[in-house]
């Protein structure tokens, strides 16, 4: 279970904290959804949870163990908004093997199958894939790392209606085996698959009083 207790993030260059006294609990194999407009602090929270940003006030815990940024980098996998902009490999195989040069083909294939890309050629260029396939590939890249917590920043942004529906179905399937935390400013579709929902505004996180427990 993920627990955040009284987390505040106030960079020296900003006049006010970006995140204020954040408290959150997310159980294993749940999908949590944080809803808020651009600039509300939701992406910053994901970057902290991914271990990219240090904080000074409050604690982050996984199954009651307090975590440092180094721990979080090992625990969490972050799928960025528009992850296709971050692809570095010239082929699907290269992209999946980045940082895992000794990984075997069976594990790579298992990751692709888990995101519905089992028939995809290892030699295909990530940039040649459709928008939906690129989002799935980005998920597969993180699943290879076997993260305890999967973080997704605006996973449906820029996708058309039919591809969004396919991605929502995939996220619902993934939470059978993974714990997911998603942030979005377009929550309508995602609320239907979320177990817990929060709203963030001006760095303050408020839980939904009527969570949907699926």
Q: What would you note in describing this structure?
A:
With 214 residues, the chain is an alpha/beta fold. It has one domain: Rossmann fold, CATH 3.40.50. The strands form two sheets. The protein has a six-stranded mixed sheet with strand order 6-7-8-3-9-10, sandwiched between helices. A four-stranded antiparallel sheet has the order 2-1-4-5, with helices on one face. Belongs to the ABC transporter superfamily. Keywords: ATP-binding, Nucleotide-binding, Transport. Pfam families: ABC_tran.
What's the short version?
The chain has helices at 42-49, 69-75, 92-97, 105-114, 131-144, 161-174, and strands spanning 2-9, 19-26, 31-35, 57-62, 65-66, 76-79, 149-153, 179-184, 196-201, 204-207.
């Amino acid at each position: 279970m993920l627990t955040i207790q009284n987390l505040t993030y106030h960079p020296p260059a900003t006049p006010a904290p970006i995140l204020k006294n954040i408290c959150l609990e997310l159980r294993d194999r749940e999908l949590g959804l944080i809803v808020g407009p651009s600039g509300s602090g939701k992406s910053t929270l994901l970057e902290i949870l991914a271990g990219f940003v240090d904080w000074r006030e409050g604690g982050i815990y996984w199954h009651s163990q307090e975590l440092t940024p180094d721990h979080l980098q090992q625990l969490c996998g972050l799928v960025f908004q528009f992850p296709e902009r971050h692809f570095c490999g010239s082929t699907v195989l290269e992209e999946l093997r980045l940082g895992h040069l000794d990984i075997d083909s069976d594990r790579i294939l298992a990751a692709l199958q888990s995101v519905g890309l089992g028939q995809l050629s290892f030699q295909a260029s990530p940039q040649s894939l459709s928008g939906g396939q690129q989002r799935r590939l980005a998920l597969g890249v993180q699943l290879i790392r076997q993260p305890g917590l999967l973080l997704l920043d605006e996973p449906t942004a820029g996708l058309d209606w039919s591809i969004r529906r396919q991605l929502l179905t995939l996220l619902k399937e993934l939470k059978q085996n993974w714990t997911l935390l998603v942030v979005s400013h377009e929550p309508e579709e995602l609320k239907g698959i979320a177990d817990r929902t929060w709203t963030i505004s001006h760095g303050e996180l408020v839980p939904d009083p009527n969570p949907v427990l699926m």
